[in-house]
Task: structure prediction
Amino acid sequence: MTEHVIESRDLRKEFGSFVAVNDVSFHVEKGEIFGYLGANGAGKSTTIRMLSGLLQPSGGVAMVAGHDVDKDPMLVKASIGYMSQKFSLYRDLVAEENLEFFGGIYGLSGKALQRAIDSAVERTGLGPHRKTLTGSMPGGIRQRLALASAVLHSPKIIFLDEPTAGVDPASRRDFWRLIRELAHAGTTIFVTTHYMDEAEYCARIGLMVDGVLVALDSPKGLKREYVPGVSLAVTGRNLTAGMKRAAALPHVLAVEPFGARVHVRFEDGHLNESAIRELFAEKGRVDRIEPVDASLEDVFLAVVGASAKKKAQENAKKDAKKNAKENAEQEGEAA
Result:
């Protein structure tokens, strides 16, 4: 039977009249790398802070490592590792001193602390940097030190909140290699990130929009559900002029800008490269057209777009009801 080491049921957080996390429900399995994606302000960090015992929920229930985050936040904190994007390290200490400090917070001392430090240093490749001043470290090395601090006490679960923000691509790859090794050894990883390529490493992904968990599946499952069909990537100049017309072509499901390129998605069996080339070349210049696989960025745009459309429809219905009520009241007064 699969073990759920994190379980959220209708988890909610309100700040006054603002609902930051709106009745979110999901579970995370032991040894799983679980991604939590969303735009800034979507509720990702608020969720992770509640699950870490750092922020009291306004409603719902969340169990982490068998402990209730509302009733037993201290037991939750003792069972997890937590790493934020700000790397909560003391920059005026050397790496080893930071590890000694955080190990003490986790209740480690003496030989047990030294063994934990040695293990974390070896695991994260920090050997040459044990005596390096933290403030003088490159971002990628400081990132590994933050991870070493989070795993010192061998937690069952590690929460990573935007852990690779501001780190160079090579350091990001090295970091994710470490994360996969931890998961392979049985540690559960709960990670928020805004790098869509990183999210591909996750076994499952939850997508947050305006405090609501709107989608939850594997990367492959999300692509299959939200980005069906086949796509072409158009590279060239002055392509925006042709986007609206491309969207009106038969069997075209979506047209989205991707940096200097435009992605055009067709229904399966209806790919029409010649029509796309002719249309975009009419008022622009087409340098290259090539097939492109669906990405999680495509998924994100589709999910956010669908949510925005749904919200607009709901607001329109509310406005229509309000106007109808006001009109009825005015007619009643006139009578």
Notes: The two ends are 69 Å apart (CA to CA). The longest helix spans residues 296-334. The mean pLDDT is 90.
